[in-house]
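Tokens for chain A. Residues wanted.
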């Protein structure tokens, strides 16, 4: 009994030491920063009150948050449609050399600087238009975000679709399903997890983007919520009130995202329960 206890204790210690780097990274880069944001949002600056931190949440900020969500949703939708179609067609190719070459071309922009990609895209649009500063409107922001984050949608989808057993598709055809029905009933459910991963990788950074709006949208109302948070972050170096205001905005956005995730989980469980009851 004593030897078994020592063996189990040694296994627990081994697991703990293996998990220790992950625990430290999570603590330093996730838990502590989130706690600091919470603290700063509810600590008044010198000579002020907690209400002053949250006074920034007004109609203008809500409008910017709403616009940012719309821009991020459209960007994610375009990336999903383009990325899924591209990954599905590429996974059907039988040439490994062709797949490798295409993946190299797709992932090449990831290796370049973010600003270099955006500046290059803006220069391209200006050359096509024939004059400088030709891009006005949020549509150019969406195009830029789609260009930047499309590889992050393609890669997880392709990795799953490329390993999908083709006999599932052929079996669906043999059972009389059309290509469209096979796509909806077989292919999409098979890569649903990869879709969720791609959506997360595209939506979250698109929601709080900063550089894309500054370079690709020359309108007076081009700024999104990410620009506002970034501006307050610059002011926070010399102004404690700006830290509280930026933390308050970040908490509001975080609360909306958490509420959306909870809603997704609830809806998904209800759908699965309904399917199992009918099945």
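Reply:
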């Amino acid at each position: 009994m004593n030897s078994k206890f020592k063996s189990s204790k040694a296994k627990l210690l081994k697991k703990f030491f293996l998990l220790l780097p992950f625990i430290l990274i999570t603590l330093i880069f996730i838990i502590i920063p989130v706690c600091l944001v919470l603290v700063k949002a509810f600590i008044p600056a010198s000579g002020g009150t907690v209400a002053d931190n949250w006074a920034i949440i007004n109609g203008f900020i809500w409008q910017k948050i709403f616009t940012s969500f719309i821009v991020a949703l459209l960007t994610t939708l375009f990336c999903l449609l383009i990325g899924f179609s591209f990954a599905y067609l590429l996974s059907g190719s039988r040439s490994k050399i062709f797949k490798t070459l295409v993946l190299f071309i797709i992932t090449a922009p990831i290796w370049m600087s973010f600003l270099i990609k955006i500046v290059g895209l803006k220069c391209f649009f200006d050359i096509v238009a024939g004059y400088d500063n030709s891009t006005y409107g949020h549509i150019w922001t969406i195009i830029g975000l789609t260009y930047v984050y499309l590889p992050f949608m393609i890669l997880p989808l392709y990795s799953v679709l490329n390993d999908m057993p083709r006999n599932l598709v052929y079996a669906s055809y043999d059972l009389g399903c059309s290509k469209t029905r096979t796509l909806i009933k077989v292919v999409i459910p098979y890569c649903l997890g990869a879709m969720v991963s791609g959506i997360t990788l595209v939506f979250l950074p698109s929601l709080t983007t900063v550089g894309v709006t500054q370079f690709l949208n020359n309108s007076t109302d081009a700024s999104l919520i990410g620009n506002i948070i970034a501006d307050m972050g610059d002011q926070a170096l010399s102004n404690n009130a700006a830290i509280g205001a930026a933390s308050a905005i970040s908490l509001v956005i975080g609360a909306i995202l958490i509420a959306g995730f909870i809603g997704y989980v609830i809806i998904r469980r209800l759908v699965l329960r309904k399917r199992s009851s009918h099945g």
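The radius of gyration is 24 Å. Residues 72 and 206 are 5 Å apart (CA to CA).
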